[in-house]
Here is the input.
Amino acid sequence: MPTGAIIAGGRSTRFGDADKSVAELAGVPMIRRVADRLAGADAPVPPGAARASGGDPVVDDLVVNCRPDQREAIAEALEEYPLPIRWALDDEPDRGPLAGIRNACRAAAGEYALVVACDVPFVDPSFAETLLSDAVDADADAAIPRLEDRWFQTTQAVYRADATAAACDRALDRGDGKILAAVEELSVVRIEDAAIRERTTEHTFTNVNTREEFEAAEARLAEHV
Here is the structure.
């Protein structure tokens, strides 16, 4: 199984003054909900409800990427997490998700890293597992979903850790902070919209950037928990 890598180093400016990664979503810090779904320790909320709650992890361990000032609060949120945790702290904060993915991949113990953002509380672990199969079967450096709007879901994707960290380094050295600047250097399996919808629902990509989206996520959780 891959290393799970949660990217949490952003400033959450649209969320207000609080750090959204540890904001309590229906009583559980949001980053813990994401981490628990990868470990099979969350509530049975779709998509992938059975795998999210069935005690069967889709990752061997977890890497958390965040700023140094976030570590204490996130560590508290992840207390007694059932899988091993390592930290990938941003030595230069505010360089964006590309640097976060680079740092997380550097810390990954497995050949592949399943990268997810900290603000996707309905990430489908069963779908995530298929992404690893896509990458391994093709001997590719990455498996990245792409919805019909043509946007790559680069923070819900599987990456070969060493190759991706090196590609991110080169992009950052060029002064290009876009994730796709690194992705363009990798061999990539693209999972297109039709295949995505056969495997899961669009809720796996629902992210929480604003207070309104946070309230909508709480309402959705209330339907199932």
Remarks:
- The chain has a mean pLDDT of 94.
- Strands lie at 3-7, 24-25, 28-29, 61-66, 85-89, 112-117, 142-145, 156-160, 188-191.
